[in-house]
Amino acid sequence: MRKKIVAGNWKMNKNFQDAEELLDELSEQIEKGQKSSKVEVIVCPPSLYTEMALDLSHSEDEERLFGVGAQDVSANGQGAYTGEISADMLSSMGVEYCIVGHSERRKYFKETDEQVAAKVDKLLAEGITPIVCVGELLEDREAGRHFDVIRTQVEKGLFGLKQLDFVKVIIAYEPVWAIGTGKTATPDQAQEVHAFIRGLVEEKYGKEVARNLSILYGGSCNAKNAAELFAQNDVDGGLIGGAALKAEDFVTIINSFK
Ligand code: PEP
To answer: What CATH number does the domain located at 4-254 have?
Structure first.
């Protein structure tokens, strides 16, 4: 059975005090039972706050409330790469998940599908679950080539993996035109692409692997539209940016599964 997942991508937001306040609030609300227990909740703060997030990810009686993820990882193992953070560093801290190939990394840091594949390898070698983002630009969709773009990103980023590794991956479909714009994909548009991705995976790895893959939707998903998106057959949850920065909205999204 594939997992229902809601992951929050904080991006480069919140100073230390504000991050602590948000994590405190989130832990409190999840602990109070406002989180449906069938949903895996993941919080990806800036890596600088990993230790604090890990501390607050468990209740006083050691119940795990959410998993902690990173927003990026180095494609290199270790050494002279100033400013980079390795998969080994993340796993040694207790980080369980890591976003890879976010459109902002692709756009501002010129991240390629080859780098995405290298990062995925590094994470899997350290037992960290990659959340691999794919998605088309507005001009791709307007030109009707969104399926081609997504096929290329999925094939180059992930299809080098052996089946035993591929089954550990989460995919997030994030149409770039919907990220941070307030312009959400319609539930039908999301479902169409999610089904397409699942179909690609089925062709490559077979029905069982495709059926068990969690595919998240990301792009202006919020407390108001999450339920409709999550009700789609192939939408297994969300990767949430802006709406993950308010505990109340994030918890509403977590509770948006039928
Ligand atoms: C994201 O950055 O992954 C994202 C989905 O952002 P937003 O929800 O703000 O569109």
So the answer is: 3.20.20.70
CA distance 155 to 207: 17
Instruction: Read off the pLDDT of residues 99-122 as tens digits, 9 standing for 90 and up.
Output: 999 999 999 999 999 999 999 999
Identify the three-state secondary structure at position 189.
Answer: helix
Domain regions of the chain by residue span: 4-254
Phi, then psi, of 68 in degrees rounded to 5:
-105, 135
Judge if pTM exceeds 0.90. Answer: yes
Ligand 1 atom 6: residue of nearest CA: 241
DSSP state of 161: S
- Strands, E assignment, the chain: 4-9, 39-44, 67-70, 97-100, 129-134, 170-173, 215-217, 237-240
By annotation, the residues acting in catalysis are 102, 174
Average pLDDT score over the chain: 96
Phi, psi of 64 (to 5 degrees): -80, 120
Of 44, 52, 107, 43, the closest CA to residue 73 belongs to 44
The minimum-distance atom of ligand 1 relative to the CA of 104 is 2
Does the CA dihedral 135-177-187-228 come out positive or negative?
positive
Q: What is the spatial distance between Cα 59 and Cα 34, in angstroms, rounded to a whole number?
A: 14
